[in-house]
Amino acid sequence: MDSFWRTLGRPIKVLAPMEDVTDTVFRRVVARCGRPDVFYTEFTNTDGLCSPGREAVIHRLQFTEEERPIVAQIWGNNPEHYLRSARELAALGFDGIDINMGCPVKKIVKNGSCSALIENKPLARELIQAAKEGAGMLPVSVKTRLGFHDLRTEEWTGFILEQKPEALIVHGRIAREMSDFPAKWDEIARVVALRDRMGSDTLVIGNGDVTSLGEIAEKAERYRVDGVMVGRGIFQNLFLFDPQRAGRNPPPPERIAMLRAHIALYRSTWGGDKSFEVMKKFVKVHIASFEGAAHLRNRLMEASGYEEIERILEEWAPVPA
Ligand SMILES: Cc1cc2nc3c(=O)[nH]c(=O)nc-3n(C[C@H](O)[C@H](O)[C@H](O)COP(=O)(O)O)c2cc1C
Predict the structure, then answer these.
(1) Which numbered atom of ligand 1 lies nearest the CA of 143?
(2) What is the spatial distance between Cα 193 and Cα 179, in angstroms, rounded to a whole number?
(3) Which residue, 17, 89, 127, 278, is the most exposed by fewest CB within 10 angstroms?
(4) What is the pLDDT of residue 319?
């Protein structure tokens, strides 16, 4: 049976995994505004999943049918834990498993995980094999960068392609660049060319700095990727993936209603398990692009609880034109 990746139209549009953002609540908010073809969980630590304290990470794997197809992203450096985690993810009903080999955060890199694996091919190979073994029929993909200290596009992604992942998601930067420099789409195109030369059938998904459907189409055509993954672009436009609605600027009452609905879903899903402070950052996503938005946003960002947010929203009245 073909993996879900093979059933999707091109270019494949993917919502990027984003820590403390793309949980089940945010994914459902996006699904209702405009569906991407694929959703990802936040990255989930395999050591955590295999530890007695697993309750601390398991919330990352919560999802509903509305969010399918959904890929669970994992990270860590212990093959045995990859094997066990992948088995569990398959049993939980995920559509795919992705290995994070791109996160450049210092304390994660220090323990040899994520982008540090770019410098440790033997372990990277073992982890992919372990994930595949545990995943059974589920497709395993890898999300990575173009190098660690310097550009190693062909050397590194060629190595990953030899491991035959179902998809390779290439964030067009090296780890050292964090997210500070423009993504190098020419290098992503080199990965596609290499894939073709190798006769590999791994799908190549490009990632970096894309903010609209038009850009997704343009990048797919120009750089010949099979799909495009969008991260921060969704903050500017929650309707980004909907061709009918992406171009409109919702009026302030609609934006406020969306924020209220988002908060209600967040509270009913998480109760007290996730903090008000984490919720607050979504205020910026909804309260934007209208006159007086900055003022309202600043007031909301200073609120100390949900009741205060509601009071400020009730008080708010549109600025007369
Ligand atoms: C807040 C935030 C959290 C992120 N968390 C993850 C993560 O959990 N796993 C991952 O592979 N990448 C993570 N990333 C990187 C994004 O998936 C993406 O590769 C990066 O933002 C570049 O794409 P963009 O320019 O479209 O945002 C994160 C990025 C941001 C901004």
Answers:
(1) 11
(2) 25
(3) 278
(4) 54
